[in-house]
């Protein structure tokens, strides 16, 4: 059995790492759901002018943001609108992110030193699922606001086209997973 010691500094560091990863996931989901439109404000903050390959591949978010910026051809005014909308959502999203971090900490504490109480883990997981559902609802509201209030009709059409391509890619992946799953079961 593996025993680990967790001090308050380690928990704080893990909280910060989890928080930054969660922010990354939130941004990525926004990109997938609205084809990256909401993420362009982040690209604007980081100037988005670097053309070096290293900068382009600094993370999936960066390359995807640049792609979406080009595809939707947003104006500077639209980018600013998106930035304003996203900042207005911080008050709603921040408490949810803090609750998610608190919940993750509770799970780590509940399972420390190899402990496993299925009822307790299930209760924490259920709380986490409720928080994730709330985050999803908030993200969808944000995306709807950007789609309806910021994008032009041509940009909406392009965003819809890009969304359909994403759906097709997901369908292809699901088909591959289905085929690999049935192949394994037959062997």
Strand portion? under 5%
Main sheet record: none
Structural class: mainly alpha
Count of separate structural domains? 1
Can you count the beta strands? 0
Name the shape in a single word.
extended
How far the N terminus sits from the C terminus, by CA atoms, comes to 34 Å
Q: In DSSP terms, counting alpha (H) and pi (I) runs of 4 or more, how many helices? A: 7
Cα Rg: 20 Å
Query: Which range best describes the helical content: under 10%, 10-25%, 25-40%, 40-55%, 55-70% or over 70%?
Result: over 70%
Mean pLDDT: 75
Unreliable stretches (pLDDT < 50, length at least 5) are: 26-62
What oligomeric arrangement do these chains adopt? single chain
Protein topology:
Blueprint (H helix, E strand, L loop, with lengths): L7 H26 L6 H6 L7 H4 L3 H13 L3 H35 L7 H32 L3 H34 L1
Helix pairs in contact: 1-4, 1-5, 1-6, 5-6
Feature tags:
single chain, 187 residues, mainly alpha, 7 helices, extended
């Amino acid at each position: 059995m593996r025993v680990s010691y967790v001090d308050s500094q380690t928990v704080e560091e893990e909280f910060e790492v989890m928080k930054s990863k969660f922010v990354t996931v939130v941004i990525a989901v926004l990109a997938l759901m609205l084809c990256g439109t909401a993420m362009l404000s982040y690209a604007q903050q980081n100037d988005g002018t670097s053309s070096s390959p290293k900068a382009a591949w600094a993370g999936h978010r960066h390359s995807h943001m640049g792609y979406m910026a080009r595809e939707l051809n947003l104006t500077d005014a639209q980018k600013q609108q998106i930035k304003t909308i996203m900042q207005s959502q911080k008050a709603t999203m921040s408490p949810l992110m803090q609750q998610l971090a608190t919940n993750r900490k509770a799970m780590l504490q509940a399972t420390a030193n190899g402990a496993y109480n299925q009822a307790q883990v299930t209760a924490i997981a259920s709380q986490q699922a409720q928080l994730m559902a709330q985050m999803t609802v908030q993200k969808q509201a944000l995306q709807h606001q950007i789609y309806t209030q910021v994008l032009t009709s041509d940009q909406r059409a392009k965003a819809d086209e890009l969304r359909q391509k994403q759906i097709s890619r997901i369908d292809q992946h699901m088909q591959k997973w289905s085929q690999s799953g049935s192949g394994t079961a037959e062997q």
